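quick one, two chains, predict together pls
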Amino acid sequence: MISIHHQPQPTDLGDVRVANRALVLRHVRQHAPCSRADIAAHTGLNKATVSSLVTELIERRLLRETGLTENRVGRPATMLVLDGEPYAALGLQIGVDELVVVAVDLGGSRLLTWRRAFAAPSASPGETIRALATLARRAIGRVTGQGRTVLGLTVGVPGLVDPAGAVPLATALGWQDVTLAAELRAALRDPGFTVGVDTDANLAVLAEHRHGAYAGTADLVHLTGGAAVGAGVVTGGRLLRGARGFAGEFGHVTLDPAGPACACGGRGCLSALIGLPAVVRRLLPDSEQDGPVTDFLPELDRIQALARQDDPGVRTGLAEVGRHLGHGVSLLANLLNPEAVVVGGHLAALGSWVLPAARAELAARTLAPQAGGCRLDASTLGSTATALGGATAALATVEAGRLPTR
Amino acid sequence: MISIHHQPQPTDLGDVRVANRALVLRHVRQHAPCSRADIAAHTGLNKATVSSLVTELIERRLLRETGLTENRVGRPATMLVLDGEPYAALGLQIGVDELVVVAVDLGGSRLLTWRRAFAAPSASPGETIRALATLARRAIGRVTGQGRTVLGLTVGVPGLVDPAGAVPLATALGWQDVTLAAELRAALRDPGFTVGVDTDANLAVLAEHRHGAYAGTADLVHLTGGAAVGAGVVTGGRLLRGARGFAGEFGHVTLDPAGPACACGGRGCLSALIGLPAVVRRLLPDSEQDGPVTDFLPELDRIQALARQDDPGVRTGLAEVGRHLGHGVSLLANLLNPEAVVVGGHLAALGSWVLPAARAELAARTLAPQAGGCRLDASTLGSTATALGGATAALATVEAGRLPTR
């Protein structure tokens, strides 16, 4: 019933053209193939404006004509689709035991997905940044070799990220006050495109909102798996960032004050109960016989295999992980009332065994009937949602109507 | 860095006029006295449009000319202010031991604030609705007797409210599935204005956002005091409602699994630790000698008096309340990163003794440096913030540019 509006801002004509260009691009992205007349009818822009913008966007190869025409009353229309063939955007992801890079074209189609084994928690920030830069350079080389221009690159970090792209704290990596964006930009020798940093959860929810099973859902949360559990929150169709960009820190909510110790110094935090290292430690007590685990994929495979064999200890342990997950999600459901909470990483990989218990706990602990309608599901985007979201985020300036620099 | 935009909607000319009317009203509300030329310059509307809208708004007595002119280059200008003299909006509040009604004019100035002792938790929903209707009728009689037209009325409830104005659950009142808006509308014999229902926390944060010490803050939370603790959340300048309008349920987050039993069936919920009945029970063990407390104001006075006398038991108890409050607020600070959390009701009344411990706990438990910048303060709006917010909400249709029905 209430709405609190932003103060409207006066605009100049350049801004208006940028905004209209964004309208046209968005319409084509969502409704392609479509004609100039369709765009005019749906955006409210007049036909001359649409025609001028489309000409410019075709000339810059952001749109192209398909040559298709559609049967309709009146003249046949030339249909438009996104082109973006000459452009690419990159996303990087710092996982618990790997680095990932994804490149997409303007339409969001993947051009490449590369993984490189790398145990960031046991490396120094400098080593991690060098490894990121190496991986990024290879991906940049590949897409530029294909004749594409890179529009931007965004890195996802499991921790706090400030608006300048620095990381004040990432307990899962052991980082404190790392000026990641600046150092990565320097390592890439100030490339002619934006190098951004965001939390892995923000980028993952952006990927969900664009490409996931709940794409377009106005009230949506992505909970990351991995070493730290973070929340990316979309509310009312917009990413919730908070006053200083630190929103979404959810991994250290205390669920069990008598629970296991956490890297943050607390006890029984959500991450200490359901983070990947915690799950491996709890379900595979022999896993640390030869020192700390740095490569989690084989351990995750073992847990899945044991669960498929109905190993009672593993099944019981996974149900317990599910109850903790459901408890955590109930806090989000009570406070944010999202339409869906989507879990990623190992929580998605173990979803078949974890989610039933989690859903029961969610329903029991949420005050609104039927958990306020909140669905709880595994992400369909696999374990590279953050990198995909990073590439998606890197398209933002073009999608906002700014033309790429030539 | 990311922004996720709403799909732009096509508009018709009637909608455009409504939207422009809202722009003009908002500009005058925020910048009065101002001239037609000021409005045109700041809203980007052309002068003829502004002139036509202002004429209509003066004719409907939503604006008036002050007759003042301002010295400036060129012709002296006639200055405009909000009129709204012939209009009133009402807000009602169901507190733990009283009902409150507030009426405001279009500019948000209070016309009346009336309280009536009423122990809703020990009354039936039907009795409470009859008492609300009686109080509302008296207030309506007063403002219509002054020649004003009532634009709308909104009731704040400590519980869940669905979009139809029904209350699926309000544990603090013992309510379940109460069709409040419909029943109140019937009790008022279908008045010619909107009868709305919202959560007390949503209305309180609306009042804070308009009239409080943090007015205009884009990322703001109000935590209600009283029997139940609820959160009203403004994020990115907009009220966070969630998918089904159930957002802000924060009173039953478990802070201490070994803590006292809660009306919701759980243990150690935030409400069971820092709600008004819990605080009275904890600090004044003799208060329930003659049966359950139904009138909390004298008990609150006693606690304040003992705290002022440095009573060690009461001081220790209030610091403990503060630590639980700070723990709860740290969850909000980590997840939402608001600029400020403002507490109302008894938490504000006891703020001098509760807030220092709460702020220390908040800083210790929030991962971002300096609690992510989150301030924690007592509301300056007194104990009628919800009713004031209800009246403010009832102005929404006019503020959105719809003309009042004559």
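Confidence is low (pLDDT under 50) at residues 1-11 of chain A.
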